[in-house]
Amino acid sequence: MDRPAELVPLHYVSLGGHGPEDVVPDPYGRVLTGVADGRILRVHHPGDPDSARVEVLAETGGRPLGLELLPDGDLLVCDADRGLLRVSTGDGTVRVLADSAAGEPLRFCSNAVALADGSVYATVSSRRYSLDRWIGDIVEHTGTGRLLRLAPEGGEPEVLLDGLQFANGLAASADGSFLVIAETGACRLTRYRLTGPRAGHAEPFADLPGMPDNLWREGPDGPLWVALASPRVPALHLLHRTPPAVRRAAARAAVRAPYRPSGTTGVLALDDQGRTVHHLTRRRSGFRMVTSVGAVGDHLVLGSAWEPGVAVCARPAAP
């Protein structure tokens, strides 16, 4: 697509909590999310501002980020403080699946996906910076992000990929033959092949017009939705070409400076060949730092690590 279409806002649903970083629709048209105080929430009727309501499902005791809905209704939760969790949406029970990887604490776990064979894959955004200092990793360009695999029988996760630039969103292809990893710090998506002669290899999947955050696949035959947390920042890309000492000094300054997200928001939908199906954007948006997107009926629901609620926008017509 040559030019982006307008991302049309419809209404806003306040959650009574800050930073719904990931939003995941369930089969009943509800939306699941986690907020900064550790609660896992379910939003009923998000498309109707008059009947929308928020239900508390569980508390992780940490900071939930990426969510993955399992076939039995439970949730995989990447918690930036506690690691990879399984949360019951029935009674709120929280179970730690993994809290270490390669002999070190599993911190800044960002997104996860479960495959049909029972294996779970997860990303770690940074091994150097914690969530509250995330901007430091983006500025320093550390390349300490990881892709992990937790075997069906459990245990400590295996490190499949290292050196990723702020590994973030994660999704599987429709046929389960590869994973797509969002590298926020590099404005790109990377494909990690699971099957075939190139199994275990990573390769470029798509270069993006902004910094990708969470990914969400809309059903087995639907597109892959990508939240763009920020447009590209040319000065940042120039900084990434400087020596490591310069980047480290810039990162130290960045984590101390007040941060305000860009007023430009955007989302993409891609097919499994990396081709753009939809590109929606809005300038001077009142809803900033879109970190996730999911589709519910005729609506798109946007999450944000910055905002105290979710935004509901018009869904584009099929191309």
CATH superfamily: TolB, C-terminal domain
Highest CATH level, the class: Mainly Beta
Strand content: over 45%
How many strands appear in the DSSP assignment?
27
Distance between the termini: 10 Å
Broad structural category: mainly beta
Give the SSE map:
Blueprint: E1 5-6, E2 9-14, E3 23-25, E4 31-34, E5 39-44, E6 53-59, E7 64-69, E8 75-79, E9 83-87, E10 94-98, E11 100-101, E12 104-105, E13 109-114, E14 120-124, H1 134-140, E15 145-150, E16 158-164, E17 167-172, E18 178-183, E19 188-193, E20 202-207, E21 210-217, E22 224-231, H2 234-239, H3 244-256, E23 265-270, E24 276-282, E25 290-296, E26 299-304, E27 309-314
Parallel strand pairs: 1-24
Antiparallel strand pairs: 2-27, 3-4, 4-5, 5-6, 7-8, 8-9, 9-10, 11-12, 13-14, 14-15, 15-16, 17-18, 18-19, 19-20, 21-22, 22-23, 23-24, 25-26, 26-27
Molecular structure report:
This protein is mainly β. It has a single domain (5-314), classed as TolB, C-terminal domain (Neuraminidase, 6 Propeller). Helix content is 8%, strand content 47%. It is built from three helices and 27 strands. It has a five-stranded mixed β-sheet, with no helix packed on it. A four-stranded antiparallel β-sheet has the order 2-27-26-25, with no helix packed on it. Strand 25 (290-296) and strand 26 form a beta hairpin. Helix 1 packs antiparallel against helix 3 (244-256). It starts with a strand and ends in a 5-residue tail after the last strand. Residues 116-195 form the Strictosidine synthase conserved region domain. One of its GO terms (cellular component) is endomembrane system.
